[in-house]
Amino acid sequence: MRVLWSVGLFVGLLQLSSSLRLGAFNIKSFGDQKASNTTLMDIISTIIHRYDIILIQEVRDNDLSATKKLMEHVNKGSSEFSYTVSEPLGRSTYKERYLFLYRQKSVSVVKSYTFDDGCESCGTDTFMREPFVVMFSSKLTASSTFTLIPQHTSPDLAVKETDALYDVVTDVRSRWNTNNIVLLGDFNAGCTYVTGSDWQKIRIFTDKSFHWLIPDTTDTTVSHTNCPYDRIVVTADMLKGVVGGSAWVYDFMADLNLSHSLALAVSDHFPVEVELRT
Questions:
Q1: Is 120 a member of any domain?
Q2: pLDDT means per 10 residues in the chain (278 residues)?
Q3: What region holds the Endonuclease/exonuclease/phosphatase domain (predicted)?
Q4: How many domains does the chain have?
Q5: Catalytic residue (one of 49, 72, 80, 96)
Q6: Catalytic annotation on 269?
Q7: Cβ partners under 8 Å of residue 44, min gap 6
Q8: Residue 7, in any domain of the structure
């Protein structure tokens, strides 16, 4: 009986662990200064190792020197993680990149593109930082391919830019003939940036075929605010590939037993995450 129970427990643990974990993390102003701080890089690397794919936002790294330092720190001589990264994005001299790190034994990049949101120099483009769309493939997940649409909205344009993600989804569906889509990132979707009636102006909210996995009651900030800025939204088809109840905020401050000041030195945001079925 004890042997059977042990075998059953082992199988159960295998089942519990048989998923692919996806995360989105706004690492506040990630560049050479942060990349040169060994303490912070140790913490960031520990967080990254939690995931099979992680989107990192607010990457301020024109020459990719900080990104290369991060990869060296994460891999420590191995090639466990690889990355794909956008061009610097922004309307002014202030620019950010979208950076995806992914575990090579779990997933691979199929293709990617930067969404064309209009004439940037004319001032008629939609996004401050247009999405860098990436399709991944995995032999581990129920959906063999899935597409990630990242977005770090400009706070004052959060309603407009979050709404415009609907157009990005439409473009992805047309271009790649897929509906296995995850939208993720720091949408600034809460507190003073998106309030009350604003939600009715956001098509990925009013269209109930989209499912918001991080609820409005969630706090995704390290600071003393209580705001659900960071979100994960999936299409109806993608929802079938999500482990129920797995979407949440990873409180690295509590989990790694960090002081509040040290956690804030890492970022003013916690990662949000979800697990995909295998």
A1: yes
A2: 38 55 98 97 98 99 98 95 98 95 98 89 84 97 96 98 98 98 98 96 98 97 96 98 97 98 98 97
A3: 24-269
A4: 1
A5: 96
A6: no
A7: 27, 34, 70, 73, 266
A8: no
